[in-house]
Amino acid sequence: MKPDDFEQNLRRQPFREVPSDWRASILQTARAAGNDPASATLAMPGVADSGPSAKTNVWSLGWREWLWPCPQAWAGLAAIWLFIAGLNLTTPAQPTMAQQRPRAVGENEPTLAEQRRELARLLDATLTEPKTAPKPPPGPRSEVPAIAPAKA
Amino acid sequence: MTPDLEQLYDEHAQALFAFVLNVTRDESDTRDILQEVFIKLARQPHHLADVRDARGFLLRLGHNAAIDLMRRRGTRDRNHDQLATDSAGAFARSPDPDTQSFRQALDFALGGLPAEQRAVVHLKLWEGLTFEAIAEALEIPLNTAASRYRYGLDKLRERLRPLYEEIK
Fold first, then answer.
1. What is the pTM (predicted TM-score) of this model?
2. Do B38 and A29 touch (CB under 8 A)?
3. Is ipTM strictly over 0.85?
4. How far apart are CA B86 and CA B25, in angstroms?
5. Do A30 and B38 touch, CB atoms closer than 8 A?
6. B47 CA to chain A: closest CA distance, Å?
């Protein structure tokens, strides 16, 4: 793309010179920071002026740089987490299915010996049970003896 | 290898100053950002070891620092751009009244552009970078760099046309 006259004219407009007194102070601070990371942290713009220690400042800077792109999102996430944690603490604990005491094997269930005893009892009862009256031979319903209705 | 900070400053500080001043529109912020960039160079000299284009690398550092600064102030200085147009001006003063008037108008018109368009326009016009280099420096797609330049230049042309026609 060939620049037109307007672009050429803009290009000819010079910017201000960098203030001459900046050079010494910027380089001095940078050199000091390069030799001493702690002082570098203190000299970084936007970092707390002073802190309990240089190490704390380095950590503070790291966290700040990491969290800074979306502070509202992180704050919202922290608020939600606190809400859930509070809810969890205030709600009485209810046992879940997994936490319930497992039923012992055989509990509420007859043992094999009991089952055998029961079977034997039933068999004995069957063998000793009096024989019921034989069914009447099939025939006309009118010849079957009437059964007295049960009293309510 | 420790970089020669003095040499880097002498070679690139003017370009960095102009670019950051144009993006931030604030001289105090520009100084803070220059300081931050050189502190990073002093503390992490290995970053420069594999860099082919030191100017582009420094412009990227400056741009990132400027964007971070503007984000930090996002809620506090919502109208930073409008406030910035009242600053002392980014261009050198000219003894010629017409030229000086044009530079002031250009400064004002630049201040009216969004910061991302202003950054692209600056790198294209005053640093002479290609769109590829601009895209790399600003970490944006090539087409985005080209479109931002076109939109920004169109706005400047529209705002400065009467004055430009007058002094041409």
1. 0.61
2. yes
3. no
4. 9
5. yes
6. 13
